[in-house]
Design a protein that fits this description.
Elements lengths: L14 E8 L16 E2 L2 E2 H10 L6 E6 L4 H11 L4 E6 L4 H11 L8 E7 L7 H10 L5 E7 L6 E3 L2 E4 L7 E10 H11 L10 H8 L5 E5 L10 H12 L10 H8 L3 E5 L4 H12 L3 E5 L1 H4 L6 H15 L4 E4 L14 H29 L2 E5 L12 H21 L5 E7 L5 H7 L10 H13 L6 E4 L6 H8 L7
Parallel strand pairs: 1-4, 1-6, 4-5, 7-11, 12-13, 12-14, 14-15, 15-16, 16-17
Antiparallel strand pairs: 2-3, 6-10, 7-10, 8-9
């Protein structure tokens, strides 16, 4: 009968070590450097992955097994990001199994019975804290744990391109990482495996299954977003998922706001009404020095580089620093492009795109000094150009691309940039364009403002953060769907 390999619930002395496997070369997708060193959302894939374990409450230590030619690069990333849980960066082996063994050797000083180890692919940078926590919980009962998700595709077995079997899909899972073990379990399995002259395995749970068959391997539910960046298309998908990962946006309390905003300097362009006024009011309420600029209140034209520079200089002169710069200014003109006059075209391009460019250029020196953040705004219409407001949707798409590019350019300077993507929002700009709309069909400017401040206080960069209403009752939802216009 199989042994359940149980032990009492994890004691305070149990040490949980995450081993990040970063030995890949990137050659399979035609890269000159390992794919774990590619940048997505302003950070390398490796840094994203290490940060997950840095923030995992149950993980005590992180060991990085790196491609031997890039150990120095990984060490530099760890140092710059301040990843305190990473104790060592070591060269990996010539195979997955050899790398695991080198990691086990490096952990040889730890007691096998009170140490857990989680092996995770460095190129799975969207692992959730829920999965990490579930793995650690499962190790309180089981000696080996895998992470997997159901297969949405039918899997076939073939022999020379001829189907030999079609397994029952309900019994199939797609394996992910981390794979978690009690150190004693994985050590014992590998010790037996190396005595087998035909030993070969693509992952560590296979080693336990073959060489320690009495140890049940428990399966924790994974997540689709915990994808592995392997092929060129995966880089594109991962980049988009990071942009749209609003679910990972931290939500701060009023006490957090006061602690983090007190004494900070916030500059808001478009701060007289709507979302901009909401951001300014919230920051001011919690102790920030807020400077509001707009064409109506201060005669500041965001499309004029001189006006932008003067506004930032004024704020900096008054407080000696600028921590956050927010631009909510924008114009929305409805109509066919072929029927739009030159003045309207120029105004839309200058306010909706050149203004963010001007603000970014002028704000950078101040934000580099404070390690601060620039926050821009887009619209759900950026994902697909739409008739009747082609200029608006295309300039909002350009703002998203600007955010992505600057997140990369500014990462080494410690300056963050993000973009808020609100659903249709009740603002004066929208009312002017569309008039009265069904009650309850619009997002409140205050909700967008609160999410905006949450993003400002986060460590996110290069993200496009969605802000959505709660689920509407059926009649209101139907009314909202009947309206074809941009989000903001």
């Amino acid at each position: 009968m199989p042994v359940n390999n149980q032990r009492p619930a994890t004691q305070p002395s149990t040490r949980n070590v995450a081993v990040v496997l970063a030995g890949g070369s990137g050659q399979r997708i035609g890269l000159a450097t390992p794919k774990q060193l590619l940048k997505i959302a302003g950070k390398t894939i490796l840094e994203h992955t290490l940060t997950i374990f840095e923030h995992a409450p149950g993980v005590d230590e992180v060991l990085v097994m790196m491609n031997p030619g890039f150990v120095g690069d990984a060490e530099a990333i760890v140092k710059k990001a301040g990843l305190s849980k990473v104790t060592r960066v070591l060269p990996g082996g010539t195979s997955r199994n050899a790398t695991t063994q080198l990691a086990l050797d490096a952990l040889g000083h730890l007691p096998a019975e009170t140490t857990n180890v989680l092996f995770h692919d460095a190129v799975r940078p969207m692992l959730s804290q829920r999965v990490v926590a579930d793995c650690l919980t499962a190790l309180e009962t089981y000696g080996a744990v895998d992470v997997a998700i159901p297969s949405s595709d039918t899997i076939i077995e073939v022999d020379e391109d001829v189907i030999t079997d079609v397994p029952t899909r309900s019994r199939l899972r797609r394996g992910q990482t981390p794979q978690a073990f009690r150190l004693a379990t994985i050590r014992d399995a590998y010790a037996k495996a190396w005595n087998d002259p035909d030993f070969q395995a693509t992952d560590d749970c296979t080693v336990v299954l073959r060489y320690s068959p009495d140890v049940p391997i428990h399966v924790v539910a994974g997540e689709e977003q915990n994808m592995k960046v392997t092929q060129p298309v995966d880089i594109f998908i991962a980049d988009k998922l990071f942009q749209l990962s609003s679910a990972g946006t931290p939500e701060f309390t009023d006490e957090d706001y006061t602690a983090r905003l007190s004494g900070a300097t916030v500059v808001v362009f478009g701060g007289s009404y709507g979302i901009g006024a909401g951001v300014a009011d919230l920051a001011e309420k919690h102790g920030a020095r807020v400077f509001r600029y707009s064409r109506s209140a201060t005669r500041t034209n965001v499309a004029n580089p001189a006006d932008v520079a003067a506004a930032l200089e004024q704020a900096h002169s008054a407080t000696g620093r600028i921590d956050f710069v927010v631009n909510t200014a924008g114009v929305l003109r409805i109509g066919r492009l072929d029927q739009t006059d030159d003045a309207t075209v120029e105004e839309t391009l200058r306010v909706n795109y050149l203004a963010p460019v001007n603000i970014a250029r002028a704000a950078f020196p101040y934000l580099a000094q404070s390690k601060g953040q620039l926050l821009l705004y887009t619209s759900s219409s950026y994902t697909r150009g739409r008739g009747e407001y082609s200029l608006y949707s295309s300039t909002k798409a350009a703002t998203v691309n600007l955010t992505q590019a600057l997140a990369d350019e500014w990462s080494d300077d410690g300056v963050r940039i993000n973009c808020i993507n609100p659903e249709r929002t009740q603002t004066p700009m929208r009312s002017k364009a569309f008039g009265e709309e069904p009650a309850g069909s619009l997002l409140s400017a205050d909700k967008v403002a609160r999410t905006s401040v949450d993003v400002l206080l986060s460590d996110l960069t290069g993200h496009v953060v969605d802000v959505r209403r709660e689920e509407l009752p059926a009649p209101a939802a139907e009314s909202a769907r009947s309206v074809r216009e941009p989000a903001q």
